[in-house]
Design goal:
159 residues; mainly beta; SH3 type barrels; 2 domains; four-stranded antiparallel beta sheet; 1 helix; 13 strands; globular
């Protein structure tokens, strides 16, 4: 066989053995509401009826699908609906699922900074495999929290 024929078969069959590259945009993303009034709708468009209205900023959501300028999101209460992308920010917010201590370093033996109750809304700065660095603006606390105790933290890219 000549060189070019071998090269052709190599390129043709090599694609069968390499995993497909998946873009990060296809994965669910943790986001939050940007405005103090945002409509969650039954479908992707203003002609669809409103399912519920968010009346606070910084409510954590997870994007699970998209169509044009609309994003299908999942709420912390497992409600799905469509919201316009202008009402969203890419800032990571989360809710404390299980009360525990905020720690200075990502270790259970680290100094305890504060005790966080459940349903507290927090900003997620970055995540490691088992820990996330979070902040609470109202109380001006910052530290590490156990990742599995934060809603939606499994959708944050690990640093």
């Amino acid at each position: 066989m000549n060189f070019y024929l071998k090269l052709f078969f190599l390129v043709l069959f090599s694609s069968c053995f390499y995993p497909e590259i998946i873009l990060a945009e296809k994965f669910p993303k943790l986001i939050s509401t940007k405005t103090s009034k945002a409509n969650l709708r039954f479908g992707p468009g203003k002609n669809y009826p409103v399912k519920l209205v968010f009346i606070k900023k910084q409510i954590p959501l997870v994007i699970i699908d998209q169509f044009d300028h609309w994003r299908k999101v999942l709420t912390t209460k497992n409600v799905t609906g469509w919201i316009h992308k202008s009402q969203l920010t890419m800032k990571h917010r989360s809710i404390i699922l299980k009360p525990d201590y905020l720690r200075k370093k990502p270790k259970l033996s680290s100094k305890k900074i504060a005790f966080l109750d459940d349903n507290v809304n927090v900003s997620v700065i970055k995540c490691k495999i088992y820990w996330c660095k979070i902040t609470l603006k109202k109380r001006k606390f910052s530290g590490w929290y156990i990742k599995k105790y934060l809603w939606g933290s499994n959708y944050i890219i690990i640093n």
